Amino acid sequence: MLAAGFEEFVSIVDSGSVTGAAEALGVPRPTVSKRLARLEERLGVRLLHRTTRRMKLTEHGELLYERARRVVHAAREAESAVQRIDNVPRGLLRVQIPPRVPAGTFTQWLAEFLEEYPEVSLDVVGTDVHVDLVAEGFDVALRYGQIKDTSLVSRTLVVNSQIAVASKEYLDTHGTPETAADLADHNCIIGYTGSNIPNPRWPLLAGGWCHVGGKLMTNHGGLRLEAAKRHLGIAMVVDRNAQALVATGELLHVLPGILGREDRARLVYPDRGFLDPKVRAFIDFIVARLTARRAGGAQGQSTA
User: Fold this and answer.
1) pLDDT tens, 43-70?
2) Fewer CB atoms near the end CB (10 Å): N or C, the chain?
3) What domains appear along the chain, each with residue ranges and CATH number?
4) Beta-bridge partner residues of 97
5) SS3 (DSSP) at 205
């Protein structure tokens, strides 16, 4: 039997608060507080220094957390293994997604998933931060770009190409750059890293980056494309979003063969030696929806 209070204590540390632990465990906040207090009383030590603004592990708390975390995760794995015997997707599925995922389409898919798998419940968290899935208790995440954690299993959903574009009018007025260094003399429309940090570095196909500057910064891809159409500068955009405009000559591809990159959208999950039925069901479901969407002619905006 899992030692009383261990799961609550580990959840408090992982989430950073009693409130976060209560939400993760699906129990009232006072219950979590009482179980932590009983654990401290039983051990005869204080595990956490608590103030109104922050929470910090004591020396005893750090020692217990390192050991209790392994016990809690092992217990959760054992519970999951028992539930997998009949191979029916069930239980809470925690999913991490980046904020750029179109809410309308994804919410519709989630509703259809819950209807198809009534024994599964979902906890969906939006963030661009690549957190430790195991430590934070996530089952699967949708991520863009490079996956640095080699312990994760990944499945590629979409491959986007990033290209630089500008209007003919802008290039006629300011000149067409012939090298990446020439961009220093141009107004470049700056995108973001994730959702909240302007990124004045543009990728080079040969590897590495070049620094750019400009008067307009936005994390909205559609706005960058529209700004380029209105002759405000050179923008880095998703290739397929600009294809029709490049084909008609409304926008021109800037520094082809020099600027750009591939940006992959992947579903990733921890490599535990097996795949929980609810995780497999979710992955297969999302892949099927994406496949059907592409086969239908990519109506509207893409999902990645």
Assistant:
1) 899 998 876 667 788 999 899 988 888 8
2) N
3) 6-84 (1.10.10.10), 89-155+267-295 (3.40.190.10), 159-263 (3.40.190.10)
4) 126
5) coil
